[in-house]
Amino acid sequence: MSTETTDAPAKGDMSLIEHLKELRNRLLRAAVAIVIGAVVGWIFYEKIFSFLTVPYCDVVEAKRQTCALTSFDPLEPFGFRAQVAGYSGIFIALPVIFYQLWRFIAPGLYRKEKAYAATFVALSTTLFVSGAAVAYLTLPKALEFLLTIGGEGIDNLTNVTKYTTLVLFTMAAFGVGFEFPILLIALQFVGVVQPSTLSKWRREAIVGITALAAIITPSVDPISMFALAIPLYVFYEASILAGRLIVRRREKARLS
């Protein structure tokens, strides 16, 4: 008899009600982590706001203009600060969110599987943060394109809420996009897709990745689109290599 234990029931032994209860518990824990992170974001709002406005200020100050964002609604600053705090909460709570996701999709997490949880959380968080960082570093060029595409005769009065929404959405979109290799590796791990199949789909993948990057990039500018599409295709190729390693290990395990 196996002596391995787990603090969660195996998914195959759970009823639909138990699945729903577990999902509720995971969502509640993730929500609590986001709320705590949002409180931290509210407290450190000034520093976060200053960080978010750096790309915009770099662009307008290069044109010898004053870096100032506008607000025409007395209620807007409060809603804007709440928005910044909310997004900050999600970013801060990422490890908890990914861990709760893993605990829900993993089949019970026995002792030998817990190492996969740590790897999943670390890799998912690193990729999301990396994607957000790429978006942030790309923003100055993207903003320069957007602010000059209309010509010299336009005086840009940038609204504070619309600007930060653009920045935060772009960072979030890149972060989610950078989770792409985890999805492909997972599909190969469970046998849904084979590395050989992904190799044959390279041309289709290029078209699909480019279209996906164009869809999920909030600014719709070509600079951001290609800044997302190029890493995604690199991840596609890396996922194929990872899939081949998975297949080789399975073959060795089967023959041994």
What does this structure look like?
- With 256 residues, this protein is mainly alpha-helical.
- The chain has two domains: 7-175, no CATH class; 179-256, no CATH class.
- The protein contains ten helices and no strands.
- Helix 2 (45-62) packs parallel to helix 5.
- The radius of gyration is 22 Å and the shape is flat.
The ordered H/E elements are HHHHHHHHHH
DSSP strand count: 0
Uncertain residue segments: 1-11
Major beta-sheet overview: none
- Oligomer class: single chain
Tell me what portion of residues adopts beta-strand conformation.
under 5%
InterPro entries: TatC (IPR002033)
GO biological process, one term: intracellular protein transmembrane transport
GO molecular function: proton motive force dependent protein transmembrane transporter activity
Family: Belongs to the TatC family.
Report a brief summary of the structure.
The chain is built from 10 helices and no strands. Helix 4 crosses helix 5 (114-148) and helix 5 crosses helix 6. By secondary structure, it is mainly α.
List the helices and strands and how they pair.
Layout: H1 16-43, H2 45-62, H3 76-92, H4 94-105, H5 114-148, H6 160-177, H7 180-189, H8 195-200, H9 202-216, H10 222-255
Transmembrane segments: 27-45, 84-102, 114-137, 166-193, 205-220, 226-247
Protein name: Sec-independent protein translocase protein TatC
Family: Belongs to the TatC family.
Task: Name the features.
flat; mainly alpha; 75% helix; 256 residues
